[in-house]
Amino acid sequence: MDHNYMSYIEIDSTKRFGKPRIKGTRITVADILHWFASGMTIHEVISDYPELTETQIKACLTYAANRENNYRVAT
Q1: The dihedral of CA 10, 13, 15, 16: what is its sign?
Q2: Each residue of 5-29: pLDDT tens digit?
Q3: Model's pTM, two decimal places?
Q4: Domain segments of the chain as ranges
Q5: What residues form DSSP beta bridges with 10?
Q6: Non-local CB neighbours of 14 within 8 Å, separated by 6+ positions
Q7: Considering the domain 5-69 in this protein, what is its CATH number?
């Protein structure tokens, strides 16, 4: 996996309400996460959305993991 996930993810306030999404698509990181949460596999996602690549999907997972890792709770 390319550790530079931001080469696959973009945030544009004029598209999808500024949610992080896969560059060149309207598919958000949240969409990918919801599909995995519902039990879909990478190959099922690609079958339903052939414009996506495994690398792009893994970039979404890396982005989400990094966001979670950087999450801080105020004390």
Answers
A1: positive
A2: 889 999 999 999 999 999 999 999 9
A3: 0.83
A4: 5-69
A5: 21
A6: none
A7: 1.10.10.10
